[in-house]
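Researcher: I'd like a structural prediction for the single chain below. Treat it as a standalone chain; there are no partners to consider.
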Amino acid sequence: MTGETLRSIAVPEYMSRICIQPAGWLFASYGYENGCSDISIFNALTGENILAETIPQNTSVSNVAISPDGKYLTAMLENSVFSIWDIESGALISNFEPELPAVTAIWSGNSQYMAFFGGNKVCIYSVLDQGVVSLFDINSTMYRGFSPDGSMFSAGHVIYDVKSGKQKVVFSIEEKQINPRIVWAGNDRVITRYANDTPAVWLIPPLETVIRIADESLAGRELTEEERRKFFIE
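Model: Treating it as a single chain, here is the predicted structure.
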């Protein structure tokens, strides 16, 4: 990477807020003016404006996000209702109200689910089925994320089953001195750091019962040099 500007795309000054798709080839520009909120999606490679939505009735939007596969656009309206559009057709797929306070949201990596957060609760929503999959309490609102296949969800030092909301893995922070942050390295393994900042990889066994990582039989090993490069860990 050289830092060279590849393309300049002009957008109205009031649409200065930007959201970038995880893959990086789409981005959304949005803003509020004259009683309406406007959202436009551009192809970052060609500069083409591929979707333009106007939301009237004095409604501003926030939490604008593009799904990882680039198929869907979501935005939260002032009344905490999330709207989901199909980017290719521009059709409104659904409006969903999580009924949680101070809602924020993230996508699963496979673009099948969204997790909505409010207080100490999380609501998992299926975009394909347009319905709630599970609603459950979480121990932490920090370091949240899905496994690559969307079957598990992590928050703090706990991993949950998406469909049931039950705890699947608990990292015993006190006994193993593990920092409460989980990075998914695959559907069956995660990366954490010990208190001395040494990264370690852990296998997630396919068991129904809660596994506590304090068990010596599941002790994490240090990352290999190849794994450090792959997951950008120094």
